[in-house]
Specification:
The chain is an alpha+beta fold. It contains 16 helices and 13 strands. The strands form 3 sheets. Strands 5-6-1-7-8 form a 5-stranded mixed beta sheet. It has a 5-stranded antiparallel beta sheet with strand order 11-10-12-9-13. Strands 3-2-4 form a 3-stranded mixed beta sheet. Helix 5 packs parallel to helix 14 and helix 14 packs antiparallel against helix 15. The chain starts with a helix and ends with a strand. It is found in: Cytoplasm.
Length: about 425
């Protein structure tokens, strides 16, 4: 693929000239079909075809889908069985969370190079307040174009950017211009932009609220804007005033830079309930490896290990332990997880789901390793780092330490 093919396209300016972005310091940057786009970097032959990222099996769900798959109705959080039924020609790829975390960290670094006012709201999207970067980098629209070009050039994937006066409108704008687009909503044209949209576009309008609004004859944001606030409050309580404000583009929330992630975890739902302790331990091993890889990819270590155990009756039990030192080593996470599982007294109880999580994260560079007198380095961290490098070079299927333990079946990732 040539460099020009990687660079994102910008929409043509409107007939009356470029939109006025002078009152629009807020950007919402949203990666396009993030997990699927990352997978296509290693599977370029699948470009232009339906691709679904997610675990297979009766309880698997869709994590991401290319726009070719979305045309068939496939969307995130859809049960995989339904996705494969409505789009049988799609290629299904198991998720690689460590790889996505690595790319996400690089994308966030690009954002941080623009402004410290970055509020990540997921691994693939964030709000930026670029008001303080104008003198150095230009107008908000110019900064948005810069971000899109840098993401495409560095990672070979695309993103869509909404530019607006508020977070709410910026997020709607990025959704409207997907995929691979940029949309500026001038401050004096917010109402013009909002009112034709379906009422479900508003934050806080879920399926039930939408149904209630439609029963009242309210189908668009413009319809909602004409309803007295008192009426909305009577029908929906405090949410009514919130919806009324959004209908006129009022949103006073600021971009709030987030602290680093406080925890990283993975969980698995079995195709059928399991009461075999060895099977559970094998899953704890696989989950520990995935969590450790994500920690290393994100540059984190953590001190607290917790396990999540969900019984067949949906009763959920969690157990945790704080380690002497922070870790990103799968073996240490696995050993602790097994001890917590055994201490929970569920070794002969049928389980529907198991999960492993590491909490109390700190940057790996800030952690120190204290060896006791006569204690030697185990070498596990170095070995796992070598496996990370091999996986990046040869692909995730080349290195599967957990597969050394044979599993009777493969659980389904959520």
């Amino acid at each position: 693929m040539s460099r020009n093919q990687l660079l994102p396209r910008d929409p043509s300016p409107p007939p009356d000239g470029p939109a006025d972005d002078s009152g629009c310091p807020i950007l919402h940057v949203d990666m396009d079909a993030f997990y699927a786009s990352v997978e296509l970097l290693d599977r370029p032959e699948l470009r232009g075809t339906p691709v679904i990222v997610g675990a297979t099996g009766a309880r698997g769900v869709v994590l991401s889908a290319t726009y070719e798959a979305r045309r068939f109705g496939v969307h995130s959080a859809m049960p995989m069985t339904r996705a494969r039924r409505i789009c049988p020609q799609a290629t299904v790829i198991p998720p690689r969370h460590a790889k996505y975390a690595e790319v996400s960290r690089g994308v966030m670094e690009i954002f941080q190079s623009i402004t410290p006012e970055v509020e990540p709201i997921a691994s693939d999207e964030a709000f930026l307040d670029v008001g303080g970067a104008r003198r150095r980098l230009g107008s908000p629209a110019a900064i948005a174009r810069m971000i899109r070009a840098q993401v495409a050039e560095r990672f070979g994937i695309t993103c869509s950017v909404g530019v607006a006066s508020t977070k709410f409108v910026a997020k709607l704008a990025s959704r409207q211009c997907k995929p691979d687009g940029l949309l500026v909503v001038p401050a004096d044209r917010v109402v013009e932009f909002l009112h034709p949209l379906p009422v479900a576009a508003l934050w806080g309008v879920g399926e039930r609220t939408e149904q209630a609004l439609v029963r009242l004859g309210i189908r668009t944001v413009g319809d909602l804007a004409q309803v007295p606030v008192a009426t909305l409050q009577r029908e929906f309580g405090a949410v009514g005033a919130h919806l009324a404000a959004l209908a006129w583009g009022r949103d006073d929330r600021r971009v709030v830079p987030h602290a680093p992630d406080k925890s990283i975890g993975n969980e698995e739902t079995f195709p059928h309930d399991v009461d075999d302790p060895e099977t559970i331990r094998r899953e704890l091993l696989r989950l520990s490896e995935r969590v450790a890889a994500r920690l290393r990819a994100g540059g984190h270590v953590g001190r607290t290990v917790s396990v999540k155990l969900r019984r067949s009756d949906f009763t959920t039990i969690t157990r945790s332990r704080t380690l002497r030192e922070a870790t990103d080593v799968a073996k240490e996470i696995f050993d602790t997880s097994c001890e917590l599982y055994e201490a929970a007294g569920l070794e002969r109880v049928r389980l529907r789901l198991v999960g492993v999580r590491v909490e109390n994260l700190i940057p790996a560079a800030a952690a120190t390793r204290q060896l006791g007198l006569g204690e030697r380095e185990t070498g596990w961290r170095e070995a796992e780092q070598a496996m990370d490098r091999a996986a990046r070079r040869f692909g995730p299927d080349a290195v599967k330490p957990a597969s050394l333990v044979r599993r009777p079946f493969g659980p389904i990732g959520l």
